[in-house]
Design brief:
With 319 residues, the chain is α/β, with parallel strands linked by helices. The protein is 36% helix and 14% strand. The chain has a 7-stranded parallel sheet, sandwiched between helices.
């Protein structure tokens, strides 16, 4: 059996695949593989491990319907044309559950970094602009006792809420498609409407999937409903916020700050104005980037691949 991998995964996972006599081909270049190259790379393969933002769209799926299984190196699967995969009966699996804590830690990091203008202040040192003491300039804001609003209180959102409640005594409100009664009991979290979430949150953190409903959800009209001292955090998908509108909201001081681990597009251009704002912190999509989490993700990938190659039900399907 042969498997193509469009990037690097944990060495232990590669070894396990090789131990099962699977022939591995990997994309080794630093640039992202193009759609045409991806189709060509998979044409004589039995399985595909998708690392990075590959578009698993109808064109790819129809050209690669000979594959026995596709394993995503992610929990999100917004890049997959699920309906076409279903029609072709092509199993596609993801890595649910194992990255919740690491991604929540990244959201927590961004919240603190934004509140204290940490990235901006660090850049001042790099640029040789750390000069005399100025006690009344470039001040941050405190978040202790403030209100945390969670848009999408699932596993990752719950981990973020736990951290904020424990560390800063933050009040937790949330908006979901359905109530999370366990979170309400554990954290005294309060379910609110979307507009109430915008109006009441001091920190609004996004932990929902990118869908037709959430794409571009955070537009300028939405930012205008938030508090002028609010911090917006997105570690989910860049397409959930309109980046042009977010830039405007920050420039016009409609909201106070933003922390992003996801952007639109990715990678973000080095001259993007968000990178130079005082109360903004941007990371290059490192939410799950810990040794432990990436190893756990790779374990699930191996399970999906091995089951799919045998013609068995994959353990972590997306549909």
């Amino acid at each position: 059996m042969k498997v193509f991998i469009s990037g690097n995964i944990a060495p232990d996972a590669l070894q396990k695949l090789e131990d099962h006599h699977i022939q591995i081909t990997q994309w080794k270049e630093t640039r992202q593989i193009t759609p045409k190259e991806l189709i060509e790379a998979c044409k004589d393969q039995d399985g595909f491990i998708s690392v990075g933002p590959n578009k698993i769209n109808a064109d790819f799926l129809n050209a690669s319907k000979h594959l026995k299984v596709i394993a995503l190196h992610s929990v999100g699967f917004d890049q997959v044309d699920v309906e076409t995969a279903k029609k072709l009966n092509l199993p596609v699996g993801n890595t649910p559950g194992v990255l919740s804590a690491a991604t929540a830690e990244t959201a927590f990091l961004l919240m603190i970094a934004v509140s204290r203008k940490a990235f901006f202040s660090y850049r001042k040192i790099i640029d040789g602009k750390w000069e005399k003491y100025e006690p009344a300039t470039e001040l941050g804001i405190e978040i202790s006792g403030k209100t945390l609003g969670v848009f999408g209180l699932g596993k990752i959102g719950l981990e973020m809420a736990k951290k904020c409640k424990a560390a800063y005594g933050m009040q937790v409100i949330y908006h979901n498609r359905s109530r999370n009664e366990d979170a309400e009991k554990e954290l005294d979290a309060k379910y609110v409407s979307f507009d109430e979430l915008l109006e009441q949150s001091d920190v609004l953190t996004v932990h929902t999937a990118l869908t037709d409903e959430t794409k571009g959800k955070f537009s300028i009209d939405v930012f205008k409903k938030m508090k002028p001292n609010a911090i917006f955090i997105n570690t989910a998908r860049g397409g959930i916020h309109n980046e042009k509108d977010l830039t405007q909201a920050l420039e016009e001081k409609i909201i106070w700050g933003a922390g992003l681990d996801v952007t639109n597009p990715e990678p973000m251009g080095k001259n993007n104005p968000l990178l130079f704002m005082e109360s903004v912190a941007v990371l290059p999509h490192i939410g799950s980037a810990t040794e432990e989490t990436r190893a756990a993700m790779a374990e699930l990938i191996v399970e999906n691949i091995l089951a799919g190659l045998k013609g068995e039900q994959i353990p972590y399907p997306i549909y």
